[in-house]
Amino acid sequence: MKPRTLRRHFRESFKNLRRNGWMTFASVSAVTVTLMLTGIFLVIMLNLNKIGTDIENDVEVRVHVKLETTEAEKDQLKAQIENLPEVEGVEYSSKEQELQNLINDMGSDYTLFEQSNPLYDVFIVKTARPQDTPDAARKIEQFSQTEKAVYGEGKVENLFSFMKTARNIGMILVAGLLFTAMFLISNTIKITIFARRKEIEIMKLVGATNWFIRWPFLLEGLWIGLLGSIIPIAAIAVGYYYAEQEASERFASHFIDFIGYIPLIVPVTLLMLVIAVFIGIWGSFISVRRFLNV
To answer: What does the alpha-carbon distance between residue 136 and residue 127 come to, in Å, rounded to a whole number?
Structure first.
């Protein structure tokens, strides 16, 4: 495309935005509303996914070693555990360390057990994938030196099932919001282009090519998408700044960690820009196509 032709398309796109002020406002408003809903839901889903992933990664198997096990047998048990394909790491905690941890967590009343420690030596096992925890625990329980392998049986499986369902529902809802946004915006732009169908017909009759007619409308869609993304991006950027600070302070005692401001806002902002531009251009492309067959 020649630079002069490109400049002409840019001028026409800006001129048409001004000429069809109310329809431009309607299209920009449609982008703003749908993108705001999509952005808010996306921020919520990303944080819920991080919290779920953190909880899943905290799942571990605590292997209680039989009381009569010798040091050599403990080394053998550790080697057996490390050789399991599901296992990523193994840490040893003696029963003295376990009692000290119990005293630190529950209070000095448990110092009474220092003279006769009833606890077990423990291997703390982390799996490469949290979902492999139940399988690893069942295999470890078969080893002769294992008293029992504890990992929160029942609750862990329910957690994994809930998180899988929540992620799937989240993906479906985000896809649904994006589809709704594309439908609303393309129909709003279609109304704008319908009002100018005579202009398209005249240009076709005087010999203009489809792409010569199409370019100004695609650029209009681009500007509509960019204009519609300004308010949602600004609102989410400012809102999440204060929401993240407030939520971090409120849930700090519950060990819930939210995504940091910059690591979340930068990719979400870029994603919202891409979505807005794509929806604007795609809406214009689909809407103008039906009027090019004169």
So the answer is: 8
In whole angstroms, what is the distance from residue 154 CA to residue 137 CA?
13
pLDDT of residue 232: 92
Ramachandran class of 93: left when φ > 0, alpha when ψ lies in -120 to 50, beta otherwise: beta
> Is pLDDT of 294 > 60?
no
> Domains of the chain: which residue ranges?
3-55+158-289, 60-150
- Burial annotation 165-188 (CB, 10 A radius, 16+ → b, else e): eeeeebeeeeeebbeebbebbbeb
Helix axes 261-289, 210-250, angle to 10 degrees: 150
Instruction: Give DSSP secondary structure letters for 242-277.
Output: HHHHHHHHHTGGGT--PPPHHHHHHHHHHHHHHHHH
Encode pLDDT of 136-186 as tens digits: 999 999 998 998 999 887 888 888 888 888 888 888 887 887 777 677 766
- Sheet strands side by side (includes 61-65): 87-93, 122-127, 61-65, 146-150
CATH architecture observed for domain 60-150: 2-Layer Sandwich (3.30)
Average pLDDT, rounded, for the chain? 82
* Residues linked to residue 62 through DSSP beta bridges, in sequence order: 124, 150
